[in-house]
Batch of 2 targets.
Target 1
Amino acid sequence: MPWATTLTLILAGLCASSLGQYNEEEDLAWLQYYLRQSRVSSYNYVPYYEEESPAYAYSYPSATDTEPEPEPEPQQATPWRCPQECDCPPNFSSAMYCDTRNLRYLPFVPSRMKYVYFQNNLITSIQEGAFDNATELEWLALHNNQIGSEKMGRRVFGKLRRLERLYMNNNNLTRLPSPLPRSLRELHLSYNHISKVPSNALEGLENLTALYLSHNFIFEMGASLKGLKSLILADLSYNNLRKVPDGLPASLEQLYLEYNYINAIPDDYFQVSPRLLYVRMSHNSLTNQGLSSSTFNSSSILELDLSYNRLQKIPRVSTNLENLYLQGNQINEFSISSFCSVVDVMNYSRLQVLRLDGNEIKRNAVPPDAPLCLRRATVIEI
């Protein structure tokens, strides 16, 4: 018997025996290993951490030119059946792909599913109990639909105690879904119509590491971030905030507040977050009057973007800062004390990039001790 035929029969036998023994407590790691070994699938699962890119890579017949699918006749729901509107690859049987199919409703989700993709459809509502059968869900993608807050069940995510990533960006939400599973690690709600985040809206989400709320209409955050003990990234850019959130978690590393209307920052605001590395507050209304002398003098911050504000002086920063963006302000003097309190051989700034273009500083206004203080700088634009 030719070796290729023998290999085919062996693989077929493995497939049959493996799927026959599959149950709800399957070992996902074993399935992924088997997927790599068999090399017969067109599905290629890719971990996803950025909301700008798709959460997976796979192939299926295009449905861009088809008419919206009519709602099917009621079927008897079973814990194992894959809905006819979706694809459930046998070699990754805990995933269900229902995206980009002009769906106007949520199909039934079998109980074995852990990864479900409903994005890029025309879904407008999520009925109460829609996911009660699928309590093992870990990833749920609902972005790029037309879901409104008034058309969501009150406790639609209440039984998803293992859910880690929820994608609902690019919908019509006017408020945060509630309650949210305490297991959540990533919450994607950008490009909605949310205007307010109550202080208790994120209460209990102690495992949340990434919060995406950009491109909404939020004018108030209250102290909603303060209790998020694991939060690493908070993206609140492109909103209507007029003040910073009340209190930051100690775990925070990245804070994005650009394109708001913030004009002041409390004293020692960033000191409560000793791990903070990146702060972006460009395109706000910050003035020197709204800042204390030590607001940005935090030893942990490596990158600070204050471009396109209303600053007239360079704020004092830590000597550990590596990248400082101040272009597009009203700064009229180059104060070396903003970077080095003492200038000598042993004391200098670690700054590598300094942008001061688009201000009122003249090139001949650079102080003579600037090369000694800023000896690490590779880019200085005035």
Target 2
Amino acid sequence: MSSSQALIVPFDPSAPSQAVAGVLPLQLWSLTPSGDKAPKAGTTATFYNTPAGKTTTISSVGDGFAAKAGEVKRELVRKSVGAAVKELKAFEGVKEVVVDASLDPHAAAVAAHLALYKFTLKTNVPSPFDPRNAEPAKDKIAFAPVEKSAEWDRGVVYAQSQNLARTLAEYPANMITPTAFTERVRKEFEGIANVEIVVRDEAFNPDTAQNVFLSVTHGTSEPAKFLEIIYKGAADKTAAPLAFVGKGITFDSGGISLKPGAGMKLMRGDMGGAAAVVSAALAIAKLQLPINLVVTTPLTENMPGPSATKPGDMSVEVDSFSPVRLLTKRRISDSS
């Protein structure tokens, strides 16, 4: 039976065996039924009560690891640690896992937290992803490195931000409306220095020529939002910022030009661009990177309502004093 504590040890089958937290991975591997060839990256074996009171999973990084290029090594460590986590998370009793991150602390931290992630809204066991939860979701397993390092901590931020993007994109459309999206973003950025969150509604400055965006909102009853995240981490707060723009259609039915019904539920993911840029900004802000950043994402649903924009409703107006403006014919006639 597995214990509540476990150890993950990535190992190079072609390198001299070194003890990690009282474990000799090559010696353990020799006890498994294996052939003459070195185990491929991600090949695992789990041992109970090794060392006493713990479960240990060893995982290969592949033959000739030391001779590989830097980025190749990093990916092999991710594959190795990820495979070990997937094996351990099948054991209900495992609650704490110590990871030997000596080969690449950053890669090990990213892999552990990404591999642990599993989105579910099933109700037979209360889901940690239920947006009605008062407290943030807690990980099923708590990870820690054998030796603490800044690179491990940095990798955790990377993985947590990626997992936020995965969560936002997985929510069904009734749980991640434009309003719910902006509320979740505000909560995620609470207490982080140098960040300003601005949420605008449909009345936001019509002179910015955003009528193309607004025309998409005509068929839905959900209020549209325009989200801005402003992060000023550079020494010069007035320096030109990096800009991220993400598409935020929280459900895209196709509007009047209705998409095929088969697989339409996947169009909840049409806000994946918004999820990605928001999550990238969260990592940047948590790490307090020395840059200025502006994130903008328009958020709405595209639905076939009675006021939905129809094919052919778009018109282009050009004059010598302003850039091209895209307007809807309905709005032109309303203003005449």
